[in-house]
Design brief:
The structure is a homodimer of 246-residue chains.
Chain A (H helix, E strand, L loop, with lengths): L1 E8 L2 E8 L2 E8 L8 E7 L6 H17 L3 E5 L13 H13 L6 H26 L5 E9 L2 H10 L3 E8 L5 H7 L6 E6 L7 H10 L5 E6 L8 H15 L1
Parallel strand pairs in A: 4-5, 4-6, 6-7, 7-8, 8-9
Antiparallel strand pairs in A: 1-2, 2-3, 3-5
């Protein structure tokens, strides 16, 4: 892991890194040290926007987490930012737009082609990032995953044993295989749902929440659209990680 | 309002009262005074159990609220404790048991006969209690309602303008007229749902949440049955009242 840049502001150290061609950012509270290592939250992002466009929101989440004594890491998703496009993605997006414009429900195979290549490539990239970050002496081996594409969050929650709690955001398309994978998830979950999310099928989000195998899971639904998550929902998600990572 | 008893313990003053034959309890933080009056939370209860059987849980809620600087009041519901039974209630309960034993869904008219007489009598009793409590100089005119029979919570949220925020517990039968009344509710709501509640129709609870007219409403669903509400859900409900009553 090559750190290319380091900035210190407001009690947080921000370090840019690159790992196997994947750029990322690590934020740690200044208090983090080898003798007082801090838990780590892997901050997911929506697909397609890119990490630089998401930077202000990621920084806000990192600051919020740092106030509770957590480090936060983000990486550029495959096909986002300056990374090469994923094969077949232009076609999948065109098929999606066509279905939405026609007022049709999005066919399952389009959802699969839109989401699964991203999940299949991003999950091992997150795992490689985690391998590297856990070698830093100031990072404790208590890890949560938060937000982003819910199919990717589900894949990581189901298959990466070092992740011990996950915050999810019901707001993207859900492949059929994700519904099956959800039944194998057993870690504590905190799922946000925006009740009037224009890009989200509410019933599918409720079905996915129901499918998760976790004995401890909380659904928090608020009014408003995809970007209208109220501040108190961020506080509640933070409280969830405090309960499970500290 | 006649206060019949007063006990002081753990920083809380507990006073028993009676108003028009309805017994009640008021808990105030010792810090409450005419110069520093405290907001008031009206603590609802499930029907039928009676205030004395509910006392330990009510006291726990009052202590939790007092820690945030709130007073809490509870009153005996019509037909509960030592109060006379509501007319027709034995028949309605027998019809309910018969439907449940037969594995049938409970007919709408049985729900109406079971819930509406309680709501129709309890709502004005809560309002008379509120009239009296708001005359106490240590009680501020910032009032929330929390818990109990959700049809009663909906009636009060819809019709009592002095209640400015309501916490609700989706866990009882919902008359059809309550669904209609819900559309007229506009105050902020915090609705708890136990996902596997054996005495609750999950879809009806979601439909009722959807029906509320409030621009600000949050649904918090947790795993487990009716009595399995996790401690963090109590904290989140408390945070809701802190946001709206302080």
């Amino acid at each position: 892991m090559d750190f290319t840049d380091s900035v210190r502001a407001d009690g947080i150290v921000e370090r840019r890194f690159a790992l196997g061609g994947v750029p990322g950012i690590l934020w740690t509270p200044e208090s983090a040290s080898p003798s007082t290592p801090v838990p780590l939250i892997l901050a997911g992002q929506p697909g397609g926007l890119g990490m630089e466009r998401m930077y202000p929101r990621l920084l806000g989440r990192a600051r919020h987490a740092a106030a509770s004594g957590f480090a936060t890491a983000a990486i550029e998703l495959p096909g986002s930012g300056d990374r090469p496009p994923l094969p077949g993605m232009d076609q999948a997006r065109a098929d999606l737009r066509r279905a939405v414009a026609a007022g049709e429900s999005v066919p399952d195979d389009v959802v699969d082609r839109l989401i699964l290549p991203l999940v299949d490539q991003a999950a091992p990239e997150w795992q490689a990032t985690l391998d590297a970050l856990l070698e830093l002496p100031e990072i404790a081996d208590r890890v949560g995953y938060s937000g982003g594409v819910i199919a990717l969050a589900t894949r990581l929650a189901a298959t990466e044993p070092r992740i011990s709690a996950a915050g999810m955001f019901a707001g993207s398309y859900v492949p059929r295989s994700t519904m099956t994978e959800a039944r194998t998830v057993t870690i504590p979950l905190h799922v946000l749902l925006q009740w009037d999310d224009e890009g989200n099928d509410r019933q599918m989000a409720l079905d996915l929440f129901d499918a998760f195998g976790s004995a401890e899971k909380t659904l928090v639904a608020n009014m408003g659209g995809h970007t209208g998550v109220p501040a108190h929902a961020g506080d509640a998600a933070n409280d969830f990680f405090v309960r499970h990572l500290r």
